């Protein structure tokens, strides 16, 4: 399938206070690769993304027990893409298919960071990743050990930048404290969930980090597993991921279906429909553009499972300019979840 | 021989203030590997330990003149264990079978640390050990040289953590002083002797180190060469290690037999018998549980020479909870060697 | 073609406050290698330069899209020159022939510096360059990232010294600020344009840097694309570079032809003719000697396209001593562009 | 030739404030290896030295234009000596057989240190030397560059310790200043000339360095090219080195023959004869023992050209104890060159 005519040009953004440029829209391997979508389809999605200018492909050691990294590495070889053109990431924390004694195959100890990165690079078939993430914070490992270990990874040429995923603001600040104290490199990016229904962390808790540490964001779940597209407004279609996937995260979502918070989300999404219609865009485009409107977002990671979805998502780049202050106020009024500024300026 | 039913689940503890987890019970290669017990037996002991959840296997360059490392490395290959599942250590100081001019094949000079580690890794057939110990303090080598050399080992990927064995509290503090001054990594663990009959160092001298430097302990000789099992209460059996081994340490023990301190120890052990009987455990289990009761002990290294011994030792994990404050007081009353707190809090 | 008799002996100068010695006259690959002059000719020029004592050969990743580095590397192999005898440089910033997505193939991010240097070394067929330059300043990449990345290049043995090209004095000072703060190596040399018609930067803006940071200069365009030789005094010859080259820089020069600044330059050059005649040297020799007269210039990079030009340029070494204070004053009177001292001494 | 009976046991001394032990007597490759004594003889001398416990073999990149390193490396392989048993040194400064353009093949620039060490290791056939010396101070290279470059050599595993040769006290202190400032490793040893006729530097100028920086000495020329053996007391034998060698240093000595300073030295040496006779040792043994008597001397490097000379020199180890305070006073009275203490203690 070839790229449709008329798609907007990809936008590239600096990854926080670094010199690396990532496509504003990127492709994640969370559900897609090696999972319920077969490999050929994954290849097609990656190619579609590459063709529309996506340069950032996100993965993690534990996605599909390591299979996602293998498929991503296979795609890079299959299509003969130049390494320099790509920004490849992976994340360390959860380990992969475990051996007999997995106690040290998880977390952010020096042991798991080094062993995990070595395993990931082997699966990817790469000498280095561009970005290496701590996939969670590890309260059992001293922060200094983790900061030193990620710097060891960078010093040995196995990664170019390191960052975090789903850390608290305090944990990120603590990592920088050790980096500064020891003259080491601190975490330059964080990967949180961010979408219209989940904005407290990015717009509230993290408020000071962008200026203070130059934190860049590579956010995931911009459409909240599709809820924000409006496709669940009238119930769960049988062929959707929510209806079929065995993934734990999705199963967790399934369990929410029908409870109060789920109902509240569906109602909120339904009330966004008129705003999208007025702007003559789909609700998915509105939700995606809303995320990209936030300049602290370096890249929004999407989990497309068909090439058409990739093309659709890219259209949102054109819609960002439609989000005038007035439209943003209308959206805030519907969402009712705008964080109060934590920074007081006297 | 297969694992008996009903053994308690292995417990894993953080190695001091690090993110590494070691099994509370571990296996040491001091007497066992390559020594008077043939290799096949060693393999059987290692397998038994691995099967009950032991992940930490301890060795040293000089155990059996380097043979212990070879056998340990052979076992890892033979059983196809995953490297990530294992915590492998060795220790540098004493050198191994010497060349013609061994003056620099001993101690903690940069030369011996680097050459010693390279030799150990070759014998083990590994790219890195998890833990590297300074097997003694070296008063002839400047502390700064030793601290720098162990950091060189870590920076070149040959070890993940470094520590000490049989150092004084002052020496450990001095190592940290240089590590802090130079922004380097300090020693995270110490390997002292620790058991009911030898507790002054761990409970007295080291008292401040656990909080101050996050020191973890991997203690050896929890049963004091079997004395604490009570098996020498009525004299030395002919087939025991004390009766047969050529090992220098054991020979040193032999020389003590019959002297005043030996008699005193045997009498003390005999007086512990009622306490063990009251708890319905063996004296060996009591002694082992007593060591594990100390939370500053990350791992107790045992020197089993038969698989059955491994299984027996593991049972002590269940006995720790029997050591109530009252029982501990009774034990202290028998031992009469509880160190006075050195830390004064006003 | 063999070296003519009577050429002066090459002079070697320290590269700023470093221990490296570069020939006062050096050969650059800007227009020459792989470009409009065929490879054999390039080999001949390099050999001529080498034979007269030139030890410094300058290149850049983007010269002729990477072809210049290949030809330079081929020459070194072809002539069997010893690596230790040579000072080889290249420059990172502009990238080379791009892949599909060149956003990260440009600039001074850690990614492009590492990937760019690796690519350059592969094209050159060398394990390291002596000098690595940041070919421009990159205002999008944090200075700290750039300083760290060049130190990574030095620490991994891929370059011996790093410097800048066409940076401002403030940017150079800022790089040193981060180097000093982090205990890293700062930029030791800068490569600016410098000639009789362009002296504000070298003699004005950079005035403090020589003493403050030990900055050395490897200047380019000492003859300003030949203008200072006087050969364009009577119009543009059809067979000159200005008449024939497709190079962008030269095309930019072409566009200036006939405008006011071009006319002013030509008039100035014409007025230098009597001075050259009085000293019994050519105008080219005068211009070259004038550049070498500045002791802050470690090396003047020339872009000879024929061996004869190399020999001619070397003659200027003998002419430096003719530039007495009186002659220099006469030249300043013609040029009328002597920068006012920025450093005030009370 | 086998080791004679009755030789004293070799003494090992710490190399300054380091953990490395060097034999108090060592063998240097200055005149011997690859020079006027053929290789087989060199092998015999090295074997004799090794057999009497010499573990330190000293070389330099420029000794016999690199040939000394090759022969030393050949000997190590030939005899199958274990690397750990040896302390091998070389020195960087003078370069070796030059290429066409040797300007950067000399001195202490980062370029020559790295390229020089790589070349030396290749000639020696070793992965690392134990000691790397700066063979002279280089006033043209910034001290910081030199200190960083030697640390790079240590960090990349190519040497274990670095030091200096024929530096001034101020230069050594300056190197430590940069090492301390940057958290790097400073020079641990200096190689000066030291003997009864040349003691101002070691006993005067360097007085504070032993305590302040832990400086160790590996001194050369303990017998001052044989003058102190008394063999030139009655003129120059035709078959001696002074009579036959083409070495520049020796030729420089030859030129002194007959001048006032030479005559004064010969007279002084003649007046030492009665002291040696009273102690029942040869003058050579006296001179050698006198050097070893100085505890700041870690090793005295000798340049034996026959195995018998090695055995003779070793005998001086037994003679050190004969140098009572009274004997030392008698010697000082003859020499008349005892430095005045520079350190004033109030």
Automatic annotation (TrEMBL), chains A, B, C, D:
Residues 25-334 form the NADP-dependent oxidoreductase domain. Keywords: NADP, Oxidoreductase. GO terms for molecular function: oxidoreductase activity. SUPFAM superfamilies: NAD(P)-linked oxidoreductase. The keyword Oxidoreductase applies. It comes from the Eukaryota. Gene3D superfamilies: NADP-dependent oxidoreductase domain. InterPro entries: K_chnl_volt-dep_bsu_KCNAB-rel (IPR005399), NAD(P)_OxRdtase_dom_sf (IPR036812), NADP_OxRdtase_dom (IPR023210). Belongs to the shaker potassium channel beta subunit family. PANTHER family: HYPERKINETIC, ISOFORM M, VIC POTASSIUM ION CHANNEL, BETA SUBUNIT (EUROFUNG). This is NADP-dependent oxidoreductase domain-containing protein.
């Amino acid at each position: 399938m070839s790229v449709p005519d008329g798609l907007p040009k990809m936008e590239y953004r600096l990854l926080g206070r670094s010199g690396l440029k990532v496509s504003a829209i990127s492709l994640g391997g969370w559900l897609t690769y090696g999972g319920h979508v077969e490999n050929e389809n994954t290849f097609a999605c990656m190619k579609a993304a590459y063709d529309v200018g996506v340069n950032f492909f996100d993965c993690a050691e534990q996605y599909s027990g390591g299979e996602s990294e293998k498929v991503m590495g296979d795609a890079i070889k299959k299509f003969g893409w130049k390494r320099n053109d790509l920004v490849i990431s992976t994340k360390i924390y959860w380990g992969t298919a475990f051996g007999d004694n997995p106690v040290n195959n998880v977390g952010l100890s020096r042991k798991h960071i080094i062993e995990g990165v070595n395993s990931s690079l082997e699966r990817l078939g790469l000498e280095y990743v561009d970005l290496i993430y701590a996939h969670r914070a590890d309260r059992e490992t001293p922060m200094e050990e983790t900061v030193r270990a990620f710097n060891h990874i960078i010093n040995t040429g196995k990664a170019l930048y390191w960052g975090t995923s789903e850390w608290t603001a305090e944990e990120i600040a603590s990592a920088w404290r050790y980096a500064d104290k020891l003259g080491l490199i601190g975490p330059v990016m964080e990967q949180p969930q961010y979408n219209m229904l989940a904005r407290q962390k990015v717009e509230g808790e993290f408020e000071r980090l962008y200026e203070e540490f130059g934190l860049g964001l590579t956010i995931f779940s911009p459409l909240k597993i599709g809820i924000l597209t409006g496709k669940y407004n009238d119930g769960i279609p049988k062929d959707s991921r929510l209806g079929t996937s065995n993934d734990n995260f999705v199963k967790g979502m399934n369990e929410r279906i029908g409870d109060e918070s789920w109902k509240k989300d569906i109602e909120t999404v339904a009330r966004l429909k008129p705003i999208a219609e007025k702007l003559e865009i789909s609700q998915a485009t509105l939700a995606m553009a809303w995320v990209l409107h936030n300049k602290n977002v370096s890249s929004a990671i999407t989990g497309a499972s068909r090439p058409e979805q990739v093309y659709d998502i890219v259209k949102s780049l054109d819609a960002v300019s439609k989000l005038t202050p007035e439209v943003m106020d209308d959206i805030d009024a519907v969402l009712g979840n705008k964080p109060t500024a934590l920074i007081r300026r006297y």
